[in-house]
Each structure stands twice: as C-alpha cells, then as structure tokens.
Write a structure and sequence with these properties.
Blueprint: H1 4-16, E1 19-20, H2 21-30, H3 53-56, H4 59-74, E2 81-86, H5 92-99, E3 108-113, H6 117-123, H7 132-135, E4 156-160, E5 168-175, E6 184-189, E7 192-200, E8 212-218, H8 221-230, E9 239-242, H9 244-256, E10 257-266, E11 268-269, H10 271-275, H11 279-282, E12 283-287, E13 290-291, E14 303-306, E15 308-309, H12 310-316, E16 321-324, H13 325-331, H14 334-348, H15 354-369, E17 379-384
Parallel strand pairs: 2-3, 2-5, 3-4, 5-10, 11-15
Antiparallel strand pairs: 1-7, 6-7, 6-9, 7-8, 10-17, 12-13, 12-14, 16-17
Length: 394
C-alpha cells in the first residue's frame, strides 16, 4: 500500500523528472505531517525503532556529565555554560545528564535542539522547559539585573527547533545526528562517476504510478571531482555518499561556538572504505528495533540512515580529536562509575531497592556501550576553539 510520501515523491517526479536521493531522504524523515521524525512516529528506545547509547540506560548520560564538567573547567568555569544537544529527541540524554548532577549544573543552560515539533512536545513530560528568552538574555539588555538573572541559576533547560541564533560558550553535542541527514549517492561507472537519482518505474506518463526505482545520470563536475579525490581506486559499480548536509551542519555548529567544543558521535568510515563495501551495509533502514526494508519503499514509515563519511567532514573542518566511543567513555570515567555500581550492588543487594538495581545495571550498560562490534566502535570526533565563518563543503 503506497504511503502519502510515496504519492508526494511520485508527484514531484512527474513534474520535474528524476529527483536526488537526498530529496527523498529529506521528505521520508522530516516531512512535518508524514515524515518518520517530522510526524513523531519515529523514536529511539527499547520499545521503539532503534536503540542509541542514551536509551541503553543512564550510564551514558552519567559519563557525558563528567565530560561536561571536564570541559567546563577547561573553559575556566564560565557562567552561563551552554550545552547544545542536537537531535535531542524526547530528551532522554538530557534527563540522564541532569540526574547525574554534574558540578557545572549551577552554571548550566542545556539546549535541546529538535526539529520535530512532535518530539519537542514530549520533552516537557519529564523536563522543566524554560523560555529561551530567559536563558539567553541579550548582551545589550540594560534592565537592572538582566544578566545577573542568568548567572548561578542553573540548570536551565531550553527547547529549540534549530541551533541557537546567538554565539555561546560551551559544548555542542550531536549523538547519532549526522547519519540521519540527507545524502546523495554516486556510483562509479565504466567511464566516470554517475549520480543515483530516483524515478518512477513506469515512467512519468502514468499519473497513478508510485513505485520508485533508481536511475543513473552523469554526476556534476563538482561531485565527480570529490569522488575522484576521495575514492580514486573505486571499482565500476562501487557507490559512495555525498554528505553535503552533514558537512554544512558541522560548519553551522562551529559557528555557534564562541569558545568551546563540538562533539559528534556516530558510526563512520572514510569514502574509500565505503566504496569497498556493498551499499546495503552502510545505507540502512530501521523499524521496530529491526532492520527495515529497501530505502525507497514505504516512505515515512522507517528510519533511513547513512554511515557518516569522516573523510568528507574533514575536508572543511578537520577534527582536533578522533577516538572510538569505548575510548571516549573510558577517558571520562566509565570505569570508575562501573566500579562504584559494583560496590553499591554488593552493599545493597540484600535490600534490592532502586539504588541497588540501578547500580547492578551499570555493568550490563557498560558492556553494551563499549561493545567493539556495536556502539563501542562508534567514532567520536571533537573540534575545539573553532574559527568563525566556517562554511559547508560546496
């Protein structure tokens, strides 16, 4: 049964001809009425469509809270200290971070950035959201005490549909965002690079046709040059993504920071590595915590993700620090928290209260978060003290 977005894409193709793969992904994920995220039907969690690190349990947020304290101290304990969490969803990570009671909490302004209005509404079920005007008083506000009201009154939680429009001192954090940004696809042909576009199986003459198929057209000179630069040894038939939206987002996030750090966590490879693997291994769909169907089917009812191309991100903005998630978590106190959990469990196991159960769960959470075949292999990319005026890739 065709979905409303199947009909929407088909109508666009009949009007304009084959469309870019990125246009289909944008609609499938973020259409305000029918998109997987835009409509609010897609969500992370054990009973939802996929499991990310924050949904494994509160341990991930507790480690992030320790990392935030480290970075806050490095910045000289600024007040306010702004943490911008992109793709915050319903606020699961924020709840865990605040529950951990980081030392920076009195200075903390925690900004949930979520473009889905449906998911933003869910944030207030568990978090006390304040008006952005109260958390970001204008620097030139001359009212008595206007700036003082924003000092030492944290933690404050703000919800926005996009990155803040003002520069901040603090951290921008994106956990599994970039893999959900629209991407184009290129394929190496016998005589050069081709772009994978989306057309109708029966052509544009049939006004009821909704079956979507891939077609190949010559790539633009810019895309072909990028592909040749990053995957010069690709064999005919090999495919790579072009992640212009991800590169542009990194630039925009860096521009938000007056001083501080951008931290991106996602599954990632390089262009050359992706070209050596079947596209089905790095373009994946999810629904109900299981792999979904082909990306061009049932648009809006399943998640569409693409492994992040670290080489493309590095072209415009080379990260200062690269690690995997297991290493990152270890560096910010994972081991100590797990040891503490074991101690509390041994002390309170005979009671079996909530504190004991939470402590016991830390061991299992740690194993999941550091699994080298799973979340532990995610890449963590960090940029510090960025220069202003960054731009996207193209």
């Amino acid at each position: 049964m065709p979905t409303p977005l199947d009909h929407e894409v088909a109508a666009r193709i009949r009007r304009h001809g084959p469309v870019g793969f990125d246009q289909v992904v944008e609609l499938a994920l973020y259409h305000p009425e029918h998109g997987f995220y835009g409509s609010g039907i897609g969500a992370a969690g054990r009973r939802d469509d996929f499991l990310t690190s924050p949904e494994v349990g509160p341990l991930f947020g507790a480690v992030v809270a320790r990392a935030l304290d480290t970075w806050w101290i490095e910045l000289g304990r600024p007040d306010p200290f702004t943490v911008v969490e992109a793709a915050a969803g319903a606020g699961t990570l924020a709840r865990s971070v605040l529950f951990a009671e980081p030392a920076c909490a009195p200075a903390l302004t925690y900004v949930l950035v979520e473009r889905s209005a449906a998911l933003r509404r869910r944030q207030s079920e568990y978090l006390s959201i304040v008006d952005a005007a109260l958390a970001f008083p204008p620097a030139d506000d001359e009212r008595p005490g206007a700036r003082a009201d924003a000092v030492g009154r944290g933690p404050r939680v703000v919800s926005l549909p996009d990155l803040p429009a003002v520069a901040v001192t603090g951290v921008v954090l994106a956990n599994e965002l970039l893999d959900n940004l629209p991407f184009r696809l290129l394929e190496r042909g016998p005589d050069g690079w081709l772009e994978v576009r989306v057309a109708l199986a029966g052509g544009t003459a049939d006004d009821v046709e909704t079956d979507l198929v891939e077609v190949l057209v010559p790539a633009t000179a810019t895309d072909a040059a990028l592909a040749e630069r990053l995957a010069p040894s690709a064999s005919p038939g090999a495919r790579i993504p072009v992640q212009q939206a991800a590169s542009a987002w990194v630039g925009a996030a860096l521009d938000v920071l007056e001083r501080g750090r951008l931290v991106v966590i996602d599954y990632a490879s390089t262009t050359a590595e992706l070209a050596e693997r079947p596209v089905g291994q790095w373009v994946r769909t999810y629904r109900g915590n299981e792999r979904g169907g082909p990306a061009l089917t049932a648009l809006g009812t399943q998640d569409i993700t693409c492994e992040v191309d670290e080489a493309q991100l590095a072209l415009g903005h080379p990260p200062d620090v690269r690690s995997d998630q297991a290493t990152f978590l270890a560096a910010h106190g994972l081991g100590g928290l797990v040891d503490e959990g074991r101690r509390i469990w041994h002390e309170r196991a005979h009671i079996g209260d909530l504190a004991a159960l939470r402590a016991r769960s830390r061991v299992g959470e740690s194993e999941a978060l550091t699994d080298p075949a799973g979340l532990g292999a995610f890449r963590v990319l960090e940029w510090t003290s960025p220069a202003a005026g960054s731009t996207g890739q193209r």
